[in-house]
Amino acid sequence: MTETNYKQDIRSFLENFISEEDFADDDDIFELGLVSSLMAMQLVLFVEKTLDIRVESEDLNLDNFRSIDRMDAFMQKVSAAVNG
């Protein structure tokens, strides 16, 4: 089974909210002030819609959403678990 690369989808989503396009996949978007804590909920909804799943409370850890790389890794893990 091949892994889906979600990074471009994540970046496209974030660029709708972030005017600063010059950030790396491993940059902490919260630490850099590119997004607010309110944006975290939008990111959760994005993951749920993209994967057609419900993010469980134990996965609602801000560390899963701090960077494009971390969101991609989280989405890979969830997708693998859902799709077996």
Can you describe this structure?
There is one protein chain. The termini are close together. With 84 residues, the protein is mostly helical. Helix content is 48%, strand content 0%. It has three helices and no strands.
Q: What key phrases describe this protein's structure?
A:
84 residues, mainly alpha
Strand residue content: under 5%
User: What general form does the structure show?
Assistant: globular
How far apart the termini lie comes to 10 Å
The biggest beta sheet reads: none
**Mean pLDDT, nearest integer?**
89
Helix-strand topology string: HHH
Number of strands: 0
Number of helices: 3
- Provide the low-confidence segments as ranges: none
Based on CA atoms alone, the radius of gyration comes out at 12 Å
